[in-house]
Amino acid sequence: MTQTIAVIRGDGIGPEIMDATLHVLDAMQLGISYEFVEAGLAAYEAQGELLPAATLASIAKHRIALKSPLSTPIGEGFSSINVSLRRHFDLYANVRPAISFPNTKSRYQDIDILTVRENTEGAYIGEGQHLSADGETATLTQKITRKGSERIVRYAFEAAKAAGRKKVTVVHKANILKTTSGLFLRVAREVASRYPEIGFNEMIVDNCCMQLVMRPEQFDVIVTTNLFGDIISDLCAGLVGGLGLAPGANIGAEVAIFEAVHGSAPDIAGRGIANPTALLLGAGQMLSHMGREDDARRLRRAIVATMEARDGTTPDLGGNGTTQGFAAAIAARVNG
After folding, report:
1. Among 51, 208, 227, 263, which residue carries the largest CB count within 10 Å?
2. Domains in the chain with CATH codes
């Protein structure tokens, strides 16, 4: 049976890496069809809106979306289109794997870290922003709730359990942010007590960043609040070779959106050299979410084999291939 997903081709290099990703998915003969919708600059230029109602309706209808990077114009009313999507659909879990791949610029090997980031609360959301009339003082409200903390920590433990992972590390700053981060840590301890079969560790965020650089092998699953998660997940991407290898899933109770977490890179748009790996890995997360784990593994194996062979790899991976050429090389392996 055919399943339809919403597809946002994005801005900058977005259309190029999306075309490459869909080429690979089509080669896998998955029975997935696409409804193309717009957001970001492409939507603004065509419809005068950054996030049209028709786009939101399509995502709500199909419940799954695959999204390329978007650009938000400065001064257009949105602090972030991504934040708006997360809030609209209550996509509370941001899930970012960082996995070592062959022939990258990484300084490390055998990294396999899953960062689970709360996606709807905290300082990153930008609630209560205010600049005094004299321009001398800026304020921001940071809100953490028991509900938000409980569901994201539970998600992290359930993800660890499902994947056979052994340890969850909760990252916090409760020694200083005693109310907000303190509540998150207290709730995390409560949730951890329900999963005695999974190891539980607590780590202050600044120490976590240092430990990730010094001994990343000690980490398995990290769960943390929104702003800390934004920073830590990018740090983890740096451990495995950069954002070009970093996918992300935004999961809610009803809707899930899968993406490449890097930017739209307008400086290289149209040159055909963008690396599609992050979006392809996001598509792999999507397949897992759809219950098609065998297909997700098939896709990831083809990506690894292509990188091992240096077959058509893009310049950021040390090759001289093109976006579509790299995708074609992966597509040739997905059914092997």
Report:
1. 208
2. 1-101+241-336 (3.40.718.10), 121-223+231-239 (3.40.50)
